[in-house]
Specification:
By secondary structure, the protein is α+β, with helices and mostly antiparallel strands. It has helices at residues 65-82, 104-119, 126-136, 189-195, 202-207, 209-221, 225-244, 255-269, 293-301, and strands spanning 2-7, 10-14, 19-21, 26-27, 31-35, 41-48, 55-58, 61-62, 87-94, 148-151, 162-166, 173-179, 275-277, 284-289, 308-312, 319-322. It binds (3R)-3-hydroxy-3-methyl-5-(phosphonooxy)pentanoic acid.
Length: 323
């Protein structure tokens, strides 16, 4: 039987980078994000006794190599839980550019965790689903619960999962994503997590994470944009300082990335509430109160180097669509 699930990507306000345990994807620090309701991954899973290997079709293209292996290794975890020998056909569609720092792996593994576990007969609660999604991609655990979510670092596999901090309608924020380049990125985040500790800045970034998490959490709970803006920009800058100083160094920014960062700082000085944050890619997420999104979107489109602008408000959690 075919099981279909939908999940949204998320944008981290306080970033996850580096693992205490790479295999279990237990993070070096906790993280906080907002689900992006306007963007989605839809994934169907059918376990089929006729198949002698997993078949993975992404955006209409049959996958081979690393992309197939990563999905198959994840399904092995679900098969082991269910004690099932069956292979599956997985069809997944992203309605946004894949692999360009818009966290396609987060929505991908959140939707896959939900569809695959349901297809093998599980009815996992939110925490268990979030733990499972975490095994595919760390940030995917934050796309299981709804709204603004926090991935609690946890002491072990059992308590490292994400919870809702605030529902989507708690605070109307919008992410205007300035797409600088929509192709595949050069270095994936799994490699980045593995080398994070080679940067001398990583230890300081991790040690200070509880303060930034607390600041960000309070800013969300009290809907205080003036408190949110500096902490998310500082956290993003810390992440990229670690990336640029790891061995090998990871440089994700392009000229357009810096243009947008400068523009955001200028606009804020002019009194427009906005703040930037950047994941493992060149695109810039400009976070703002929803009331300011339209004017920011049109200003972003005028910046040379900006290919397009995607706009999303706060989204719900992962959901099963049908069976
Ligand atoms: O879940 P991963 O392995 O793709 O790592 C996500 C890393 C960042 O997007 C840069 C930060 C985050 O917390 O989402």
């Amino acid at each position: 039987m075919k099981f279909v699930a939908i999940a949204h990507p998320n944008i981290a306000f306080i970033k996850y980078w580096g693992n205490r345990d790479d295999k279990l994807r237990l993070p070096a620090n906790g993280s906080i994000s907002m689900n992006l309701g306007a963007l989605a991954t839809r994934t169907s899973v059918t376990f089929d006794p006729q198949l002698d290997e997993d078949v993975f079709i992404l955006n209409g293209i049959q996958q081979t190599g690393d992309s197939l292996v990563r999905v198959s290794r994840f399904l092995d975890i679900v098969r082991e839980l269910a004690n099932s020998p069956l292979f599956a056909k997985i069809e997944s569609i992203n309605d946004f550019p894949t692999g360009a720092g818009i966290a396609s792996s987060a929505s991908a593994f959140a939707a896959l965790a939900m569809a695959a576990s349901s297809a093998l007969g599980f009815d996992l609660d939110e925490g268990a689903l979030s733990r499972l999604a975490r095994r595919g991609s760390g940030s995917a655990c934050r796309s299981i619960p709804s709204g603004y979510t926090e991935w609690q670092i946890g002491a072990s596999d059992l308590d490292s999962y994400a919870i809702t901090l605030a529902d989507p309608d708690h605070w109307a924020l919008t992410d205007c994503i300035a797409v600088i380049h929509s192709g595949e990125k050069e270095a994936g985040s799994s490699e980045g997590h593995r080398i994070a500790a080679t940067s001398p800045i990583q230890a300081a970034r991790v040690a200070d994470a509880p303060r930034r998490l607390d600041d960000c959490r309070q800013a969300i709970l009290t809907k205080d944009f003036e408190r949110l803006a500096p902490v998310i920009e500082q956290d993003s800058n810390l992440l990229h300082a670690v990336m640029m100083t790891s061995n090998p160094a990871l440089h994700y920014w392009r000229g357009g990335t810096v243009e947008v960062m400068n523009a955001v700082r200028t606009w804020r000085k002019q009194g427009i509430p906005c703040a930037f944050t950047i994941d493992a890619g060149p695109n810039v997420h400009v976070i703002c109160p929803t009331a300011d999104a339209t004017r920011l979107e049109s200003r972003l489109r005028e910046i040379p180097g900006v290919e397009s602008v995607l706009v999303s408000g706060v989204g719900g959690g992962a959901a099963l669509l049908s069976d």
